Amino acid sequence: MSSVLKLSDNPSFELAIELLDSNGNGILPVIDKDGKFAGIITDGDIRKAILYKNLDLESIINKEPYTLDPSSSEHQKVQFLKSIKRRQLPLVDHERNYVGMFTLDEFDFSTRDNWVVIMAGGLGSRLGELTKELPKPMLQVRGKPIIERIIENFVKQGFTKFYLAVNYKKEIIKDYFQDGKKFGIQVSYLEESKRLGTAGALALIEEQHSEPMLISNGDVLADINYAELVDFHERSSSMATMCVKEYEHIVPYGVIETEGDKITGLKEKPRILFNINSGVYCIDPKVINRIPQDTFYDMPTLFSELMNEDLPVTAYSYNQYWIDIGRPDDFKKANDFNEIQ
């Protein structure tokens, strides 16, 4: 952490210069006598103070500088710094505690051209009372809506263009994200007049795209390397790629293998491994032309039809966390899961 000037120490003007020089970034955060962020002193403030022979430190503090919210995403921080043409700013929380400095020089953020579609129009009926007033993607997991957490995971990896497919209580989602600018992203809406399934809303996309598109269910929290998924999809020359996760089922009984009435083997409580559909996909944009208009249509149907025509479809395997929030116990599990920050 960069050096700070603590007013409780009754610092001298010379100490401020020394600390500012040691930081090497032209900014010296100032902490008041209550331990709270008081403002900043810059190289420019010091030069002016010397020029005008004003060596009273407290009088040269910029008490209302730009700051960054530590809880905002890295992408949001970068976008804000770029918008005000700054290289670094102090991180200050809502209780005016100084957390540190965020510097563009320490962060290399590159964006990707791929669009992401998040299917957020489902009813969430299996969640009962939880979705009576809110659409499922807006239920909060550890203080943030599910869909915001999904978007943040994409943004961290450079994906900033989103289609949100909405239907049930869509105005809540639209009012929250609007055009996406406050989140540092671009948002367009695919408004379903009726339920269209996990793929049907793709037919509402009017723009022509040339880059692979990512699709995610709006109730899935997963630690997936989306950039690697896109790269895998392109290397495979695939029309559609499905993210799959290994799922283990332990049979709670001894399993008997037989041929007719002859016992050929015994397995005590065997482990059976499956690859399950994680609800995340990457598709060639040409696939969108295959989606029927205004018709309920899901992703497994799309994959089946592509396979029936011997078109290349692939599976991308990953083993990090995955939570499908379909039932109340899944919702509780997500809120209790410490890896979700």
Name of the CATH architecture of the largest domain: Alpha-Beta Complex
Which strand order do you get reading across the main beta sheet? Answer: 10-9-6-11-16-13-17
Helix content: 10-25%
Mean pLDDT figure: 90
Largest sheet: 7 strands, mixed
In short:
By secondary structure, the protein is an alpha/beta fold.
Identify the notable features of this structure and list them briefly:
alpha/beta; 2 domains; CBS-domain; Spore Coat Polysaccharide Biosynthesis Protein SpsA, Chain A; single chain; 341 residues; three-stranded mixed β-sheet; 25% helix; elongated
Describe what you observe in this structure.
With 341 residues, the chain is of the alpha/beta class. The protein folds into two domains: 5-106, CBS-domain (Roll), CATH 3.10.580; 112-336, Alpha-Beta Complex (Spore Coat Polysaccharide Biosynthesis Protein SpsA, Chain A). Helices cover 25% and strands 30% of the residues. It has helices at residues 13-23, 43-51, 57-60, 74-83, 146-155, 170-177, 197-200, 226-235, 299-308, 328-336; strands at 5-6, 27-31, 37-42, 88-92, 98-103, 112-119, 140-141, 144-145, 159-166, 186-191, 213-217, 220-222, 240-250, 254-259, 262-268, 271-283, 313-318, 322-324. The chain has a seven-stranded mixed beta sheet with strand order 10-9-6-11-16-13-17. A hairpin with a 5-residue loop joins strand 4 (88-92) and strand 5. The longest helix is centred in the N-terminal third of the chain and has 11 residues, at 13-23. The protein is elongated and about 100 Å long. The protein starts with a strand and ends in a 5-residue tail after the last helix.
